[in-house]
Amino acid sequence: MPCSPSTPLALPSPRPSRSIGTERRRALQSIPLARSRGRRVTNSAPSRKRRATRREDGFSLLEVVVAVAVFSLGALAVINVLGQGSRETVADESRAVAAIVAENRLAEAMAQSRPPASGLTRGAETALARTWDWEMRVAPSPDPRILRIDVDVRANGGKQLLASLSSFRAAP
User: Residue 28 contacts by C-beta under 8 Å, 6 or more apart in sequence?
Assistant: First the structure.
C-alpha cells in the first residue's frame, strides 16, 4: 500500500496489549515444577560469551591438588590414631601377661612348704609364646617373724618394668 501524505502511517504501538513478560510468566506458572518451588526459570543454556567467562564449569588442577592434600592429611591422622590404639593394646596385653607371670612366681613362693631363702633370685618363664624375665627378692620385714617377697617382671631382655607384686609370708 502506497503511502500518501494524507494517510497516517500505521506504527506499532510501543506497548502491546500483553507484554512478552506477562505471557512468559503465565507460561512458566503453568509448569508445576516452577510454580511449586517459587523460582524463576530461565534459559539454562548459557551463551558462548557467558560460558567462556564462567569459572564454575569444573575444578582446576590446583583445586584438585589441594583437595587431595587435605584428604591425605585426614587419612594420615586416622591411620595414626588407629596405630596408636594398636600399640596401646599390645602394651596393655604385655602388662597383663607380665602380671600373670608375677602372680605365678609369687604363688609358687607362697605354696612351698619352706619359705624361699633370703636374697635375689632370677629366672625366665614362657607365657603366651613369649619369654619373660623375673626377679624375686626375699627380705626380712621389720617383724622378724615375717618375710617380704617382691617379684618384678620384664619382657625378655627388656629394661622396662611391666609388673611388680609384693606379699608377706611367715618366716621359718
Answer: 34, 35, 40, 41
Count of other CB atoms within 10 angstroms of residue 94? 20
Model pLDDT for residues 46-81, shown as the tens digit of each residue: 555 555 555 567 889 999 999 999 999 999 999 999
Cell of 149: 617377697
pTM: predicted TM-score of the whole model, two decimal places? 0.55
What is the grid cell recorded at 57? 564449569
- Which helix (DSSP H) or strand (DSSP E) does residue 18 occupy? none
Domains of the chain: 88-170 (3.30.1300.30)
- As given in the structure block, the three cell numbers for residue 105 are 612366681
Indicate left, alpha or beta for 78 from its phi (over 0: left) and psi (-120 to 50: alpha): alpha
Under a CB-based contact definition with an 8 Å cutoff, are residues 135 and 163 in contact? no
Q: How much is the mean pLDDT over the chain?
A: 81
User: CA–CA separation, 94 vs 106, rounded Å?
Assistant: 18
